[in-house]
Please model this.
Amino acid sequence: MGRAIGIDLGTTYSAVAVLRPSGEPEILPNRDGEEITPSVVLFQNFDGRDEPLVGTMAKHSAPSAPDDVVQFVKRNMGDAAWRFDSSGGQTYTAEEVSAIILKRLKEDAELALGEPVTDAVITVPAYFDDARRVATKQAGKIAGLNVLRVLNEPTAAALSFGLDASEEGVVLVFDLGGGTFDVTLMRITNGEFDVIGTDGDRNLGGFDFDNRFMEYLAQQVREQGGPDLMDDHVQLAALREKAEIAKRSLTTVATTNVHISVDGRPFRVQAARKEFERITADLLRRTEDLADLVLEEAGVTWSQLDHVLLVGGSTRMPMVRELVERRAGRPANRRIHPDQAVALGAAVQAAIEESASTGSQIEVFEGKPLVVSDVTSQALGVVTVEDDRVTKINTTVIPRNSKIPAKHSQDLQTVRDQQTALHVEVTQGDDPNPDFVVVVGEKTLPIPAYPAGAPIRVTYAYDIDQVVFVEVLDLTSGKSLGTFEVDRAANMNDRQLEAAAARVAVLPVQ
Ligand SMILES: Nc1ncnc2c1ncn2[C@@H]1O[C@H](COP(=O)(O)OP(=O)(O)OP(=O)(O)O)[C@@H](O)[C@H]1O
Ligand SMILES: [Mg+2]
Model:
């Protein structure tokens, strides 16, 4: 096996790290010497062949070639209907676009390390559901990586933080990135990382703050007699870039000027941080509400927190730091790097996985092994039919915030003589109404033919990656009938996966 790396596959930026022999994780720079790589793909076409370009150059191309650039693809992971059509006439799934990014990250890591990389731990937002986790693993596979684990981003960040033995206690990880928000409460004691609770919003990040700013800028241009920039997708791509840059400026200055040129006509919009904070106040409030909820559920108050970790580029916005520090009544930790902590923690986990499989010892925590215990961010449910044989209800079998891996068994009886199949439908979400939860998948399980009433035990489980599987036990014979992956409507099947891997393997990714 080659080297195992940790990959933070972000909505807007990705980072890669590896554990040094000294036991310290370090960021691996990309081929351009940058420590983070924009998760952006420009689909160039030469002589009828797609040549995807990943990173900063691709990001810079977004305003001039919006139809050839894919950004924020992480938001589309697990959406089976999403496609990108390149101008070269090729069609790509979200998993494939993510795989193109991963392939570039892998090749850059190989360049930096001077040896092949085969294995990786890839991080995901804690709030990602089964479909999105499976899609992420599949993207890794398509990129030619053996995905050792998918690890929750806040847990990874805490892992890099807690390597310093002096950092113990109750820790709140507040992770506001480019596309997602996660809030995770955990306890770190003596090398043990114990997640108590987690919540989040997988559609809340810098992207949404940019959207608000874009609307604001467009309105100001309209008020100055200009056209509606929101109507034109080429203008929109340019506006997105301007808005993001202006947003970042407002992190350090109180007022900034945004210069927008429309068909050669110049417009100047003056934007103040106060105004930006006003138009995004509800987004910030949502992060606060989710943090309150996690603490409340765990019975922990803000003042009981020993450490607050701000992770993700969007926590650089002064209003975020102010909010968290005001609520906690203490300064947030300054040692944690908002862009790197997740990748560094993933590298630690990659080394842990590597040493577990090779039997070698790694000593990262003063010679003691690290123990990481995480929880599920989504309740697992099963759909059953009521006695009226019509009404379907969703019953939670593994509640949210359960320790993973987690299992729940149900003893059922066959209803017909010679019944040879049992149908199960697995969901994620808390609502008893199946219409308000996400169907993970279903499976028709083969069972031996017995007279009606034969007992069968079905075990629903979350594996360590919080991916759902089902085990079936024939209680008549006492034999296991096997472990089954549910058939997921939202994900690629094995055949599609193989085809995608073959396709991406020959793509010249730069
Ligand atoms: N100085 C800054 N001020 C305000 N926002 C910033 C600043 N620097 C970066 N950001 C924002 O942070 C976001 C990127 O953060 P990060 O790289 O942590 O996200 P990500 O890992 O790509 O996303 P996610 O974790 O949600 O998948 C972008 O929206 C960017 O605009
Ligand atoms: Mg991130």
